[in-house]
Amino acid sequence: MAENHKNGVVTGAARGIGKAIARTLAANGYNIVISDILIDEAQKTAAEIASLGVKAVAVKADVAKAADAEELVRQTVQQLGSIDFLVNNAGITRDNLSIRMSESEWDAVLSINLKGAFLCSQFAAKEMMKQRYGRVVNIASVSGILGTAGQANYAASKAGLIALTKSMARELGGRNITFNAVAPGYIITEMTEKLPAAVKEAYLAQIPLKRGGTPEDVAAAVKFLISPDAQYITGTVLNVSGGLLI
Fold it and tell me: Which domain holds residue 21?
C-alpha cells in the first residue's frame, strides 16, 4: 500500500467532469487510472495527465458489468500498487417523459449510474478493507434530491446513489473507509449542453449565483473529500450547485 494514499481510479474520466476531476487530482500529486468505455479518448486523457508528473493509466471498462468492475480494480492495484480512492463518475442520460420512457431507457441509466457505482465500490472496498484505508466519492446530482421533469430515470439513479453512499458509509466506516457524494447542479458540459433550452433557463432562474458551474468546481469538491482534510467526513452529500438547494 502506498503510505501517502495517492493511488486510485476515476470512472467515466475520458472527458467532461471526470476528466476535470482526474486533472485536478493529478495536479495535486495523485496517480490515476482513467476508466472509460471510450478507450481512445481515455488514453489521450491519460497521456495529458501523465505530463503533470504523475502516473496515469487508461483502462477500458463497462462499469455495469461485474467482470469489468472487478478487472478495473485489479488493474488499478496492479498498475499503481494500491487503490486508495475511487471516484464513481461514470454516468449517462436517456431523457424522456415518464409516460413515454421505454424500459431500455430506464434500464440503461440505472445500470450504469447506480449499479455501476455499486459494483465498483464493492470490489474497491474489498481491497480498501485489507489496507484499512479508502476514500470513495460518488458523483450524484441535485436531480437526485429535487427530481427533474423528463429525467425520472436519471433522478432515480442519483437518489439511489445518495442512499448507496450513506449505506456503505455506515457499513465500512469502522475500516477507515469513507463514502461521500458530490451533488452538482447545473454544470456546463457536453451532456448539459444537450438539454432543452427551457430546462437550462429554468435551472439558471433558480440559481442564486446566476450562472452554471464548471467541471473544475466539481473537481475541487472531490479533491477535498479524498484529502486528509476530510478524514472525519463520511456519509455526506456536498452540493455544488451555486445555491440551487438553499
Answer: 7-239
